[in-house]
Amino acid sequence: MYKDVKIRVSLDSEKFDQKPDKGKTLAINSRLARSIEVIAISELARQLVAPNSRTFCPSVFNGESRKNDSWVSQQVFALDLDENITIQQALDRCKEYKVMPTFIYTSFSHKEEHHKFRMVFILNEEVTDIRVRAFVYHSLATIFPEVDKQTKDAARMFYGGKNIVFEDYNNIITVPQVHFALTKYIKSTKGRNASREFEKFAALTGVQLHNGLPNL
């Protein structure tokens, strides 16, 4: 139903068959903020894996540079996972908290004995409020504490990879869904410390609490 829905992302023009080296990464960085594409969700998935394996940034920028201060909007959210969790374990957790990715692809260094992958979530609308962006990303990252902590910035880019290992283009998330998932996760895993965790989350994202819960 949603596979042909078009979204905006920053998608590099170059294709790779391995992780770009430092020099190529610098070149990607210099052009990525100006590489905005309007693309169908299913086509984005295809462009991120072999034989294309293009680098992307989920955010859209004002065209000047790929920096947090240049952030304009975002509809795509990605989590980079490469330690202490398998693809199946990640999917099981998504099912438990009812916040499913649209697709998952493996990174260049993925191995069966050591899973390295990226989960890509698509929001039902393009957000232009940085607080909402922070809420959605940090909610997902809270549910997946295994996430690479270096990928939290709005300007973070993600390399392409090998293969699509999961896809369901009907999986489009909403902010209320994310709120439900975050609330359930914190309450079920933090117990009596849940209130403290919600306060820490509010301080991290700049989202105020109402009756002890994040309020958008």
Question: Any chance you could write out the topology, listing elements then pairs?
Answer:
Elements: E1 6-11, H1 22-32, E2 36-40, H2 41-47, E3 56-57, E4 59-61, E5 71-81, H3 87-97, E6 103-106, E7 117-127, H4 130-143, E8 164-167, H5 175-190, H6 194-205, E9 209-210, E10 213-214
Antiparallel strand pairs: 1-2, 1-3, 4-5, 5-7, 6-7, 6-8, 9-10
Helix pairs in contact: 4-5
Tell me what you see in this structure.
By secondary structure, this protein is of the alpha+beta class. The chain has six helices and ten strands, in the order βαβαβββαββαβααββ. Strands 4-5-7-6-8 form a five-stranded antiparallel sheet, sandwiched between helices. A three-stranded antiparallel sheet has the order 2-1-3. Strands 9-10 form a two-stranded antiparallel sheet. 34% of the residues are buried. The model has no long low-confidence stretch (mean pLDDT 94).
Describe the structure concisely for a colleague.
The protein has 216 residues and is of the alpha+beta class. Helix content is 33%, strand content 23%.
Which shape, going by the Cα principal axes? globular
Low-confidence stretches: none
| Count of beta strands | 10
Q: Quickly count the helices.
A: 6
Question: What is the beta-strand fraction?
Answer: 15-25%
Classification by helices and strands: alpha+beta
Give the C-alpha Rg: 17 Å
Helical percentage: 25-40%
